[in-house]
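Exercise (ungraded).
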Amino acid sequence: MQNTIASDHPLTPEEQALLRTLAGLIVPASEEFDVPGADDPTIFADILQSAVAQQAEVKAALEYAAGLDGHPAAHVETLQMSEVVAPVVALVMQCYYRADAVLVSLGMEPRPPYPEGYEVEQGDWSMLEAVQQRGKIWRDV
Amino acid sequence: MSNTTQGRDDAVDFSPADVLIIGAGASGATAAWSLTDTRMRIVCLEQGGWNNPQAYPTAGRDWEARGQADFSINPNRRQLRGDYPVNDDDCPIKIANYNGVGGGTVLYAGHYPRFHPSDFRVKSLDGVADDWPIDYEMLEPYYAENDRQTGVSGLAGDPAYPAKQSVMPPLPMGKSGQTLAAGFNQMGWHWWPSDSAIATQPYNGRDKCINLGNCIHGCAQGAKASTDITYWPEAIRAGVELRTWCRVKEITLGEDGLANGVVYFDENSEEQFQPAHIVIMACNGVGTPRILLNSVSDRFPNGLANGSGLVGKNLMLHPYASIQGLFEEALDGHHGPHDSLWSQEFYETDERRGFVRGFTYEFNRGRGPVATALTGAFSGRIPWGDGHHAAFRKLHNRLTGVVAICEDLPEEHNTVTLDPHLKDAHGIPAPKMTYTISDNSQRMLDFSVARASEAIRAAGAYDLLIESPLSVGGWHLMGTARMGADPERSVVNEWGRSHDVKNLFIIDGSIFVTSAGVNPTRTIQTLALYIADQMKKRLANLFD
Ligand SMILES: Cc1cc2nc3c(=O)[nH]c(=O)nc-3n(C[C@H](O)[C@H](O)[C@H](O)COP(=O)(O)OP(=O)(O)OC[C@H]3O[C@@H](n4cnc5c(N)ncnc54)[C@H](O)[C@@H]3O)c2cc1C
């Protein structure tokens, strides 16, 4: 696996390594769905960069995870229930679900909504007839 | 042109303004535009800046992340230069606002219902709170004028309202709207296309909606009628001077008992004084009481225009319940504006339900992949590890539902006060919100959850996600400088003028007497037009 540890980052190399371990535990790669894990080098580089703006919360989560005995994999139940760890979950999801490979696997176009926008069907307006038939429901004063 | 001033070519002009408006949001923009008829010199001071819509989140791949960061709906999280902190620790519903040209309309969803005739007669009809000193009929022409200026989409003929026209066709139902509507039809309940401040056709130089979604973090297409792109360009062309990055600290009082200007911090954080003949407050239901309470004098030791003691009291927020269903088939996901349909089946009082007054269901669409993943993770539906992907795919594009907007009645113990410790970047005391959900509101929330659960299940949902009250939903800020004929029981009179200070007007959501069970902005802007018109009609003896 490519080394994505950054030296000029507010997270220490140990914290970065732990963050990557957690990312892979939260969203692992899947052959069945043909998707990378959140510890994939490209996705993790995005996670690391995005962590800078949220470093206080992320550091607190990592400190909590580091304080558990042994490998985090042994504590998944505890970690996924923890409010302190929630900002790391949010960070991982934010980056994972904007990665090209992930969006393509979901049948989505890897692009921002603007400027192309999307089609949304009108729907069947004749369904309103039932409502119209009931007549006025507002209250006279 | 100076950096911060639009509408004038010279450097800042500190000669007295005829009209000084504080706040360039929904109501400030609307009144500024209306008053341009008078050819008076109108200056507006706004603490935030302009936005470039094409830099809004949906123009980038990180659009969902930015909605939780620089375009968060919560100023305590956003912490941009225009923002001020709000202490909402004693409030179960957290503050949501936007501070910049356009105010809250930059982020609003654009759900744009009118009040109903009964909403102005709560005391007479249901024996609670107070009647408004004005009524639906008086406001109707101003509603219509604001609808044209804003460009409201919708469908005429809604049986929950007196007849009203729509300016353009409704937003599409989409798969989500159609699915939910089928459930409401099975229950035999009212639903109708929402009136929306979102253009479905090119309108007044604005382009039509292209279903970007994510409306509550800014509309990059410019289809949503935020006042920075509706009223402001016209008001500025007609000569209004809008000074941005100018944060008002206090309104000062002359010896004659009239307001004579404001002290503010300019874009360089220098303290300035802008004299004025008329002052109009348009800072919203939290920002307006904050500045009034911070404007103390010998005459008003408890805050300007506070002879009644009601400035900052009767805060109303609209408790929301969110009821979302999980469906087997794929729906719209994040495509399309949040607005689509509404139901007012339970709008008017029926005491058999166990509460007075009522609520609107606002139908939502779906959410983007990040929000879906977080909803799943934090509700225990998406586990860490190998089960993640299958669980995510069960939720992806398969969530839709409604939120209930419950009428909140005024209670004096729900307040905005000045926080004794917290201050903004200029040292001005921050507002503190103290609020509890009343028993009536709680019963209404519970009822709304129970009934929506039935309808959404009837629509085919196999599981429900419920949040009540919706903790992030402090976006409707009302009641803290209420309107009324009696100076002992209200802050402004029936045309928005302070009872105590005869050249001080308030036009934002703080003047609401009651909150109705609908989003407030169409009525806020309508009231701004109405009050501006009253001022124009009385110019010769405005201060009598
Ligand atoms: C996420 C979100 C979604 C919403 N959705 C809807 C919806 O669908 N429908 C609806 O009807 N409403 C909605 N709203 C509410 C709507 O935005 C407000 O009702 C409306 O903007 C209030 O208008 P206002 O004129 O009272 O104040 P605002 O629009 O809030 O304007 C107040 C302005 O005053 C400025 N200001 C405050 N203090 C000072 C000061 N000291 N000096 C200088 N300037 C100051 C602020 O910066 C701001 O620009 C939503 C709001 C949010 C945040």
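Further reading is listed at the end of the chapter. For now, observe: DSSP finds twelve helices and 17 strands in chain B. Chain B has one domain: 17-366+398-539.
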